[in-house]
Amino acid sequence: MPNKPVKRGIKVWALCTSFFGYMYNFEPYCGRRDKLPRSDNVLGYSVVTFLTKNLSKGHHIYIDRFYTSVVLMKDLLKSGIYASGTVNTNRKYLPTNIKNVKLADNGSSKCFQCIEEPNLTCTVWKDKKEIFLLSNGAKNEITTVKRRIGGNVSYVTCPKVIADNNKYMGGVDLADQYRKYYDISRKSRKWWIYMFWYLLDTTVNNAYIIYSTTNFPSEKKSKTPLDFRMSLIEAILKEKRIVETGPQTIVKNKSHKRIKIDGRKKKMHTLHFIKKKNNFK
Question: Where is the PiggyBac transposable element-derived protein domain (predicted)?
Answer without folding.
Answer: 1-208
